[in-house]
Amino acid sequence: MGAVERKIDDHLRDSVGETLLPLKQHSFGWAMYAACSVLYEGRAASTLALGNYLIITKSDGSVSIHGATLVLPRNYLASASLLSIEGNRLTFHRKKETIVITVLEVHWLQALDGWSDSKIVICRTEKELARKIFDNWCDFFPDEDFEIIELEHPTELGPIDILGLTATTDFVVEVKRKRASIKDVTQLLRYIEAKSGSRLVKGYLAAPSIGGSAMKYLEKHGLIFLHVNFDTHGTDPLRNHGQPLRPDADGDAPDRGPLHGYFQPQPG
């Protein structure tokens, strides 16, 4: 390298270094979009060719380097990594792992103070819908006298979402959080078969809506569609009194009441 090139290189390293040096003060994290190359040493050795990458550090000491595609980073170190800065070189070290980022140009740099750390809250689950039916059981089944109502009743095939027992009949309720499909009807049939014995078994498929093909398959097996959704309190299921249920134009049947059908016990 000639004298001119060395001067340019020294100037570049110094100017980038001046930009990077304050980063050590930002313990809450920062994000930088920069032209850089990356060297990793640890579980293995790897290099990341010179290019434009997004580098993110967080208050827990983690660092990740992202490319233009994919959710996962190109490389990362988990929490509690230590940062040292020398000229235009960032070195992150954690236990036996090291990432060295050589920065040639900083396109964008932002401190991330005030970054929130809230946890996601899972909502609109099948368990939530099952609990809704359980808590409003008499609204769904006003004409039956139940002795036992059980959530997550265990079977060899997995738990039945809700099982209600009268003196003579088992009510098997399979709950889906989205539009019910033929696959869901098949699952309900397997649970009904697992409960078949000396008692009558009545099967319900509960969901916000049901596909047209699934409704036909449900009717074919004499099962019951029960409309339930997240946005209303309780429900007032409409009984069809023997009239055929017709899917809507989009193939769904959302606001229909239960069909009436029993699985008769098979002779032993």
User: Percent of residues in helical segments?
Assistant: 10-25%
Largest sheet: 7 strands, antiparallel
Distance between the termini: 93 Å
> Proportion of β residues?
25-35%
**CATH class membership of the largest domain:** Alpha Beta
Strand arrangement within the widest β-sheet reads 4-3-2-1-7-6-5
Oligomer: single chain
Domains (count): 2
- H/E order of the elements? HEEEEEEEHHEEEHEHE
Low-confidence stretches: 1-8, 233-251, 253-268
DSSP E strands, number: 12
Quickly give the structural class: alpha+beta
Question: What's the mean pLDDT score?
Answer: 81
Global outline: elongated
| CATH-scheme architecture of the largest domain | 3-Layer(aba) Sandwich
- Count up the helices: 5
Using the coordinates shown, work out and report the CATH topology of the largest domain.
Answer: Trna Endonuclease, Chain: A, domain 1
Radius of gyration: 31 Å
